[in-house]
Amino acid sequence: MSSLGFLSADEIRSYMASRKTRVVLAADHKTTSEISHALSQAGPSICMLKTHVDGVVDFEYSRWMDEIVRPAREMGILIFEDRKFADIGHVSKTQMLGHQRIATWADIVTAHRISGPDIIDGIHAAWGEVGRKGSVLILAQMSSSENLLDARYTEKTVASCKGMPGVCGFIGNGSNPPSISSLRRSVGPEKLILTPGINFDPSQSVMGQRYGHPTEAIRSGADAVIVGSGIIRSDSVSKAAAQYANATMDEM
Ligand code: 5BU
How much is the pTM? Predict the structure, then answer.
């Protein structure tokens, strides 16, 4: 663990409250400049930027820090790398410190619980090594069709992780409001629930993705919704981001 401790769910909630939006932008673009452009357009309406850095074809560390990380920090936006770590603790630590040096810029990362709880220690050991603090979101549910994270897996995952200080919360299935409500009952009030699988237009789903409405997700107990295509594939990224932000703030 970092001597700086952990980024807590409360700290993240206060970042979100100061941004007055519960939208996490899934900037699923292939190039740094596209991500940077999406960030500048959607920035005023989002509280976190979610990345898949291993999908960025022109990744170059100093450029990433200049064009993505610095502007996000200047706007007070947290950076969330959706790496979905799933290996043993030691290898997850190595991956955090590898080519893309995720530990030096991500505030939050995702991990599966499948390999055991030591994955959380491994990830925090990496943040400790670079003198930063962060937090882990654990996948308790997924939005994709026919995934294997069934109700029993969800229960076991939540029961074993909700008391961990290095875990700020869980990923839930945004396409299904009753699943989010049931996840909130298991998680309790303290930890966060973030839900992907959100789009105003469910017919936009491809390759097994499923979608629900942002307002329903927040009403069912999500702290924030993760939106990719609904924003980044729209004609106006800034307008779409504002519309999603409004739909999440109706409930605040
Ligand atoms: P979309 O374009 O809004 O469908 O993108 C959804 C994003 O959320 C994408 O980056 C996925 O990696 C991420 N996601 C998801 O869709 N479903 C899940 O269960 C998890 C993550 Br976990």
Answer: 0.97
